[in-house]
Amino acid sequence: MARRVLHHNTSNHHPNNVTSPLLSLSLALLCLLSAPAASAQLTRTHYAGVCPNVEGIVRGAVQKKIQQTFVTIPATIRLFFHDCFVQGCDASVMVASAGSNRAEKDHPDNLSLAGDGFDTVIKAKQAVDAVAGCRNKVSCADILALATRDVIALQSGGPSYPVELGRLDGLSSTAGSVNGRLPQPNFSLAQLNSLFAANGLSQSDMIALSAAHSVGFSHCGKFANRIYNFSRGNPVDPTLNRAYATQLQQMCPRNVDPRIAINMDPITPNTFDNTYFKNLQQGKGLFTSDQILYTDLKSRPTVDAWAGNSVAFQQAFITAITKLGRVGVKTGRGGNIRTDCGVLGR
């Protein structure tokens, strides 16, 4: 199915007394050992004392947004992933460019992010801040994490899972920081594994998170190389199901309207399920980076396992997206809580 998608264009203190080198080293080691990692500071009850109903408020806003357009679901999931993989899960992808500073969202790799993802977070933030006790207490980064869980679980049939909270919003957002941080449609398994490993994610995590394409969409230009002039001897990528390739050519003629987007799952495009893996078994992975998960023998066993076991896939996905939500978390002086998700320092 093809659809038109709108985009968002949118100082150290030194005591006077002298401390022995041995004592200084001991104290330094003690501080190092006792300092928790940022991700360890995330808890499910982070807002219990200031905004105990935050999850319900966000869920209500997300539900309303989904009723307006299904694009809300894949758009919000992609927004979360693109945010976490660049500077960590800090809502820096939400920031609008200002003056000469080009923010993350204006990098070419982010221009395909649909505006409905941004709007979901903005609407949820407004709903949270409309509650007196919650106003300016909940970060945009945490709202994005909650909204992602909700779009997966509410209407797309995906799993629900507890969301760890306590992220702060990032203090910077630059287009340059996106370079080389996001997977590309033509990536090999080795390239995918390398990029995910840099964010503390395993091959299993990568394969599970790739299944978000079960409810995603893509513009024709992202996979046109697979259906036109793939190689001199093979105009169509031989790993692509021939009937599916013909269908794609019909939906994506050479001079296609750039606003046309194609469902990444041709079978159950509105359901977050393990059909994604079944499609790969049949040569119906839209991107090279999707189909490689099956054509490469190092990842095929996982695809086969999850194609035949929905429960195992959902458990793996919960593990993976929880780990994703811990990437580059800002705490303490490393971040703040924005009142406007699109403006730094506010």
Automatic annotation (TrEMBL):
Residues 1-40 form the signal peptide. PROSITE patterns: PEROXIDASE_1 (PS00435), PEROXIDASE_4 (PS50873). Transmembrane segments: none annotated. Belongs to the peroxidase family. Classical plant (class III) peroxidase subfamily. Belongs to the peroxidase family. Ascorbate peroxidase subfamily. Ca(2+) 2 binds at D265, T268, D273. Coiled coil: none annotated. PANTHER family: PEROXIDASE, PTHR31517. CDD domains: secretory_peroxidase. Residues 41-345 form the Plant heme peroxidase family profile domain. The keyword Disulfide bond applies. InterPro entries: Haem_peroxidase, Haem_peroxidase_sf, Peroxidase_pln, Peroxidases_heam-ligand_BS, Secretory_peroxidase. This is Peroxidase. Ca(2+) 1 binds at D83, V86, G88, D90, S92, E104. It is found in: Secreted. The record marks R78 as: Transition state stabilizer. One of its GO terms (biological process) is response to oxidative stress. The active site is at H82 (proton acceptor). Heme b binds at H213. It comes from the Eukaryota. It catalyses: 2 a phenolic donor + H2O2 = 2 a phenolic radical donor + 2 H2O. The lineage of its organism: Eukaryota, Viridiplantae, Streptophyta, Embryophyta, Tracheophyta. Removal of H(2)O(2), oxidation of toxic reductants, biosynthesis and degradation of lignin, suberization, auxin catabolism, response to environmental stresses such as wounding, pathogen attack and oxidative stress. These functions might be dependent on each isozyme/isoform in each plant tissue. Binds 1 heme b (iron(II)-protoporphyrin IX) group per subunit. Its cofactor is heme b; Ca(2+). Substrate binds at P183. Keywords: Calcium, Disulfide bond, Heme, Hydrogen peroxide, Iron, Metal-binding, Oxidoreductase, Peroxidase, Secreted, Signal. Disulfide bonds join C51-C134, C84-C89, C140-C341, C220-C252.
